Amino acid sequence: MRVFRIRLGRDDHGPASEDEATLVHDLLWAHAVPSDGLEHVRARGVEDGMVLFFFVRAEDDLSGARQACALLTRARRPLAARGLTVPAV
Predict the structure, then answer these.
(1) Residue extents of the structural domains in the chain
(2) Phi (first) and psi of residue 25, to 5 degrees
C-alpha cells in the first residue's frame, strides 16, 4: 500500500470545516473506480485549505501516483465547485 499527501487550496484561503472534509471524503469515493486502488482516504481542513491522504494499492510509487492523479482528475470539477483548488497533476 502507498500513501500520498495532496494539499488542496481554497478560493477564500480559509480553513475547510469538518463538514467540508466529510463531503470531500464522500465525493472522492463517489468518483473512485476499481483501477484507482483506493483503500482509504482522509480529508482534513488546514489553515488555507485541505489536506488529503490517499492510501492506494499499487505496485510502486509511480503507479500509485498515477492512480491518485487519475482520481483527482475525475474529481477536479466537483472539488472546484466547492471552492477547492486541485494542484496540477
Answers:
(1) 2-82
(2) -55, -50
Cell of 17: 470545516
| CATH 3.40.30 holds for 2-82 | no
State pLDDT tens for residues 30-54: 999 999 999 999 999 888 889 999 9
Q: Report d(CA 73, CA 78) in Å as an integer.
A: 10
Global confidence as pTM: 0.86
DSSP string spanning the chain?
Answer: -EEEEEEEEETT-PPPPHHHHHHHHHHHHHH--GGG-EEEEEEEEETTEEEEEEEE--SSHHHHHHHHHHHHHHHHHHHHHTTEEPPP-
